[in-house]
Specification:
Helix content: 40-55%
Protein name: Pyruvate kinase
Number of strands: 5
Number of helices: 5
InterPro entries: Cyclase_SnoaL-like (IPR009959), NTF2-like_dom_sf (IPR032710), SnoaL-like (IPR037401)
GO biological process, one term: polyketide metabolic process
CATH topology of one domain: Nuclear Transport Factor 2, Chain: A
GO molecular function: kinase activity
Largest sheet: 5 strands, mixed
Structural class: alpha+beta
CATH class of one domain: Alpha Beta
Strand order of the largest sheet: 1-5-4-3-2
Keywords: Kinase, Pyruvate, Signal, Transferase
Length: about 170
Amino acid sequence: MKPRFIVIACVFCLTMSLSACTQRQAQSPAPTELTQSSQRNLAQEEQNRALVIEFYTAVLINHNVDLAYQYLSEDYIQHNPFIATGREALITTLRDYFASYPNAESHIIRTSTDGDLVYLHVFAKNDPQDTGNAVVDILRVDNGKIVEHWDVVQPVPQTSANQNGMF
């Protein structure tokens, strides 16, 4: 009976030890993963920011849609559910938009970067009388080209429950 008890106890301890090791690995990534993900190349991030601001100014603020070719990768990925993916789809959409809203205006309020992502907080209007939209554009840059885009758009209301404003 005693040897059987010892074997069961050993198996139990081994199982608990392995379980604890497995749980620990699942809960916290290895230190090398943390180190690698926390390293940032700020000079590259600033180049990406400058590229995105240049693109946004030329194409969306100044309505020079043909300049989009020099900023967007051929395999550009679009996450906005109302625009087809691809560089040509975006350029066509922008041409149609500016034909419908020739007085559309956008103002970049603030920007931020994180790795290969550039964030823009934008005040966009279809025309000067429009209350506009608060927009957050997220653009991913790779090798000097914009390769991917996400956005969130929120209409600016006539009245607000607070005095903070959206910008």
